[in-house]
Amino acid sequence: MKSILKIWVFSFILFHLGTETYGQNNSYQPPALTDSNSWSMILLPDPQTYVKFSRNQAIFDLMTSWIGEQIDPLHIKMVLCTGDLVEQNNIWIPEGKNGNQVSIEQWRSVAKGFNKLDGKVPYIAATGNHDYGIKSAENRETNYNQYFPLDKNPLSKALLKEVGYDIDGKPSLTNAAYEFSDPKGIKYLFLVLEFAPHDGTLAWAKEIVNKPAYAQHRVVLLTHSYLNAKNEHIESEGYKLQNPNYGKAVWEKLVKPSKNIVLVFSGHIGAPDDERAHIGFRTDTNAGGKKVQQMTFNAQALGGGWHGNGGDGWLRILEFLPDGKTIKVKTFSPLFAISPATQHLAWRTKDYDEFSFELD
């Protein structure tokens, strides 16, 4: 009798634990707009750890595939990537511990991930320190233009309005500007700048944002290194580059003097399995008296540190509400969302991961 009772109690506990677990997963809500008239933009963090290990490639492919599936449901109009597309720009022998793919394979891998969005939605990818030199910005040579050429995504090409130059004075999409009108007719200029832009690049960018043709546009700046985890503008990083300008200098020389830069996005920062070390946010005012909302978002050392899975699939969904000023930010992982066993982990809801702000 005692044995039967023990079996019954054990079965009862298992049943209720199972019910609680499935109840938790059944409460999962997939991403959805809070207003059917909103549109959204996706922010992808640094992909470098997804592509330096061949085993992680499928996670980045999953992320871009998910974006492709959500273009209509979430009214996705733009995708931005914060840079460090690869771990090393030009190594010929993989290091093993820090990646098992040579640089050519890494570039092919990240381009392959973005292939899933070609012809479906415009995207802009910044360049980070790891996208230059040999391992990390020993110089300003990059393979970016070879693997992300002008004709890779016709939808991005159609928005291209301005092309800057690389350190050798050659036209390069590492510095470029794209014009976009949202469903309400509000005009945006997406300005992407190379990692730690040199003085000539900042002078070009300043000239672009001051053009009369863009005076009424909302300018969105995308660059790699800008804020640290203390929400401060990065002052210096010690890379041996010609005339580098990090976050503080970019703010002082370009963003603050502007009258139309209202959003800045960046990546770059992180620490092993520390969510807070990967993000930053601050609000300042530009010379035109407009608020400048500045967001850093990364995830590359989550999911096992620098040699882990690449970032647990985290990305950000920015919903632009129909009032033309409110943006809702949510942090989501398609990787956790694909299985009922992990769907309860698919949202990060702390106040620095789920919040709203307004544009002037």
Automatic annotation (TrEMBL):
Domain Calcineurin-like phosphoesterase: 67-269
Coiled coil: none
Pfam families: Metallophos (PF00149)
InterPro entries: Calcineurin-like_PHP, Metallo-depent_PP-like, STPP_CPPED1
Name recorded for this polypeptide: Metallophosphoesterase
Organism for this UniProt entry: Olivibacter oleidegradans
